[in-house]
Structure formats: structure tokens, C-alpha cells
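Forum: Protein Structure Q&A
Topic: Joint prediction for protein chains with partners

I've read a bunch of threads here and the consensus seems to be that you should model interacting components together rather than docking separate models afterwards. I'd like to see that in practice. Below is the full input, 502 residues plus whatever partners are listed. Could one of the regulars post the assembled result?
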Amino acid sequence: MSSVSIKPDIIRRLEAVRPRLAIRAGLISTIRAFFSANGFLELNTPVVIKAPAPEEYIEAPPGGGGFLRSSPELEMKCMLAAGYEKIFQIGACFRQGEYGRKHRPEFTMLEWYECGAGYMDLARFTENMLCSVAHTLCGGSSLQFNGHNVNLTGAWEYLSVGDAFNKYAGTDMYEALKNDSFDELMVLEIEPRLGLDRPVFLFDYPAERAALARLKPDNENVAERWELYVGGLELANAFSELTCREEQRRRFAASRTWRAAEGYAEYPQNDDFFAALDYGIPESSGCALGIDRLAMVFCDADDISEVTFPVDQT
Amino acid sequence: MFSTSDLRKGLKIEIDGQPWVITEFEFCKPGKGTALYRCKMKNMITGGGSEKTYRPSDKIDKPDLSESETYYSYADGDFFVFSDSETYEELRVHKEKMGDKAYFLLEESMCKILFFNGEPIDIELPNFIEKQIIETEPGARGDTATNVTKPATLDNGYELQVPLFINQGDVIKIDTRTGDYVERVNKA
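Posted by a regular:
Agreed with the consensus. Here's the joint model:
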């Protein structure tokens, strides 16, 4: 029995977060069961990696003798090339300098890949998974989040990025790219209006924002990529994966040039990933979903700190 | 200069030669896009509000702000004269900068003066002062309700609302931040 009569801050905070950590645990176990039932293999790729993907706005912090992964993407794609057709993992990812109500430099990611699936197949799969999880966890067909009653069981909304810019920002998405206001309009004008009464898949990003998505075969101005929003909160990002090695090399080279010009760290080249690309990564799609964000939605939490172990900003 | 990683609620920054305090701050980052730092802010001179969104590479000016602890000495025409509690230097604040706070200045009371580029821009008085009512309608005896009020005037002409039971000559406590009646201290 403790003799301390005043509760230390950490004990008080841990006691307060307990009901929400229980919901979070329920989410994770339900998601695991869903993937398992759908024939996915759960695995863990290394957290400490030698060569993160060079991306424009994502920084993997140095650590553990290499880098703490910002995403398990390249390693999981090596597994696709080796014939693992349906894989998922849940684990910590790291993004240096990202701290806010919806961001932490360390967060938990659910990432999965499926060979033979297109990005829209993944959207339907995600819809089924989240409906199933909600049904199992709360037996309900809707979620109260951020002041909105988000209906899960009706048809989910599919809105192209181009239409979203016209509808909510009153401008053309290519125009926004040209005058360098794409991200500001997305954050200030578009995101707050997404997924308020039902979840929305924002799809077909301009090719400039393709990341590692393949371009649409019948319209190379856009990439086969979507993001899922619920109650204004971005939950997941998915692609039809880019499997063309020349195009992949070209994009990484462009990212490296941009990163060097902006003064960001130079990452070693990921030789395994390029060897896998050369060997052949099959047509596939993948999705990354933020578990902390999903827990925010299920707990109607306004800040990520309400659904995680209490950590102060360092 | 501040960098965007310094931005947080409460930080004081300078934009176009004006000092601002950040009242709300949010880190935003659209998927695969640049980090954005959303700030809501209040102008420290005019009190007006504004919003600004910064990108990671932006640099933000640091305002030249300083604070002095002073004692109020006397009024001199359009100016109020304070004496720095450490250096005894005389500091003069124009009555326009004081606004209604001028009514609550008591001799020798300790006041904090905030300077921007050497110019006084804000003054913080003791939170509560006591003042005598010199004029109000006669009190309604036995009426202790505090939600029904009537006008009353202080010796310096400041008018405020007081409960019905307050009489001429009563000493009351006033909150200098709002200018409102708090309680009765002494009955006349």
C-alpha cells in the first residue's frame, strides 16, 4: 500500500485515460480479428531502418543506429515482391517535428497491402472493416465525433480532390498547385468540411501529390490515391502502388533533389527496395491508417493525448 | 527571429511593426503535404484579432518588449507619471494609453508597464481597488439582492452599476480589469 497521499501527475493522468485506452485496445483487437478473418498475415518489419523513403515533407528521426521508420512501406513492398500477397502490421512510426492536437512524433500505424487489388477495392475493404469494427465495439451504426453524428451504414461519400477544390475552396486544384496554395486550402477550407455526416474518401490527387501512388492509366494528371476523412479528421491514406521501377527511380531522385535544396537530411538509397522493384513488385494497393486518430474518433476525443499514454512535448 | 518550431499559445511576435500575442495555435499537416502552423492572435496595442498560417521555413520577428514594475506618482496634464521601482526613473504614460484604467489609479499603487520598442503599450494595475461612492440614489434598506443594480459615481466621475443597497459614502471594491463592482467594504 502506498504511503503517498497526493497522487503524482502521471498516476492521475493514467487513471483518467484508462476508459479510452480500453476502447483503443478494443479497436486494435477487433481490427486484428478482421484482417485475420480476411486472410491477411500479420507481421512486423523493423522499426529501425537504414534507408527511409525520401519524401518531401516527412522526416524520419535518426535513432538506433539508423532512422526510426516514418512508415513501413518500403519493407512491406519487398514482401509483396517475395510473394506475400495479403499482409498487415500495427506498430509505431515516427515523424520528426510533428506535434499537435492531431499529431505526435511517435504514433501507431495500421498498414496493409493486398496484391491484385486497386485503390478503390481498398476503399470498399476499409469501409467494411470500419463498419464491422464499429458494429462489434459499439453495436452502433453511427459515431458521435467532433460535434457531428457520422452515419457509417449508409453509402459512404466518394469525392474527387478536383471536385473538393471546386466545391469547398472555390478554385481549381491545378490552379491551387500553380499558386502554391494547395496545402493551405486543403487544411483551412476543405478538410474541416469533409466527412461530417458520413465518411468520405477524397480520391484522385494531382500527380504532383502522388507520393508512391501510380498515375491513373486513363488520366496521368492524377494519381490513384485516396484519403479517408471522418468528422473533418484525416484517418487513412491509400494508393494503387507504383510498381514501375523507372518511374519510382525518377520520383525518388526528384525528392532527393528537393530535399537537398531545402536542407533536409540525405537518406541512404534503399538497395533492397530497388532490388525488389527490379525483381518485380506485383500490382497491388496499400493503405496506412492512424490508430491514434481512429481511437480519437471512437472516443470523441479532441486531442490525441486523450487516447494515448501521457507524454509531454519534448 | 523566431522559427516556426517556437510558435505556441502565448508567444509574442511582431508582424509589420506591430506586437501580437498568439491566442490559439494548431499544428496542421495535410497528408503528404507541408506542415502548417495556424495561429490566431491578438494585437497587443489595439486588441484586434487576426489569423495567420505559417510554413516551416518561415521566420517570425521577435518584438522588443520589456516590462517595468512601477509606482504611480501623479498626473501631469495629459500624462500619468510613474516611478520605476528599481531605478526610480520617471515613466510617463499618455492618458489615451490608459483608457478607463486612469479612473483606478491610486497614488503609490504598484503597476506593471509593458513597453514595445521603448513605448508604453499596456499597463497592469492591482486587480482590485477600493473607492468611495460619492453619488447614488438612496439605498433600498434590506434589499440585499445583487442582481438588481443602479448607477453610482466615484469621486473621479467614473460611473458604474452597483446593487440597490449601496449608499452614498459607502466604500466598495472594484475589479480594475473589468471596471465592475465586486463588493461593499465599508458602510457609510
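Chain B has three domains: 2-60, 65-124, 128-185.
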